Amino acid sequence: MVTTGCGFGSKNVVADYEIENYNTNLYTGDLFASDLCVASGDVNLKGITSAETDTLHSAALFDVDGKKVDFSYQMFDKIYPASTTKLMTALVALENADLSDVVTVSQNADMNSFAADEATCGIQAGDKITLSDLLYGLLLHSGNDNATAIAEYVGGSMDGFAKMMNKEAKKLMATGTHFVNSNGLHNDDHYTTAYDLYLIFNECIKNDDFVKIIKSKSHTAKVTGSSGAVRSITWKPTNFYATGEAEKPDNVTVIGGKTGTTKLAGNCLVLLTEDENDHPYISIVMNADTKPLLYKDMTAIVEAIPEK
Fold first, then answer.
1. What's the Cα-to-Cα distance from 167 to each of 28, 30, 197, rounded to whole Å?
2. Is position 142 annotated as part of the catalytic site?
3. Active site: which residues (predicted)?
4. Which of 41, 80, 136, 182 is the most buried if burial means most Cβ atoms within 10 Å?
């Protein structure tokens, strides 16, 4: 009889197993976070002081290739994302539908279904428009009508699309995030964190079509109305660096990003830039007091990129 004890004349099965297995590398795959910027809390960076952080709720600077958080301030706090939500809307659409797909606009997505202070791209019920054009309007002009049309086409309904968004957030380990709509119009149960927005945006910029859109200076869409008549709509970026309303940061190239503004979310911006060596950075400012302060704070953060 073979026993597992340590007595004389017995075989120590447990010890033999440990010797054979526990001193080897049983896991040979890559850890999920090995390709991400990770920090456990606030990270200070020379050049960024309370003069910047006093006028916002949370902010961060991520060295994409270096996989390093260069700066963070309250980046795990729960915040309302406003239209930065549309980054996830674009990501889910790009992963689950073809850009050439033609979408028929519902009454829910009609521009007249939104309040006067809610940005729209000018699409109307019965319009036919490609998913590609909808994404340009979504990311450049921040159209809530486009966001609704995309959600209903890709997810079957707004609720169905929100479930897809939350599934994607879970996949990306964006554990502080919950979405209820595709546009970011306020809902108390619709929230995220600055760090989760980094995770989402970092995934977005892996898609060449996404980067092509946010780099665009303008886009003209062809829309076929319910009568069959074709009209053109031109959209331009809303961020002040692109419009010239804010001076661009020194020593970097602004690629593009996504703005967001509501009363409770404040003024928000998620931005992709490159340094003089084409090294990419993601910078985030959430809940800035005003738009001028949003760009002042963002410029200070981007210009504080450490020298390599």
1. 26, 22, 15
2. yes
3. 83 (acyl-ester intermediate), 86 (proton acceptor), 142
4. 182
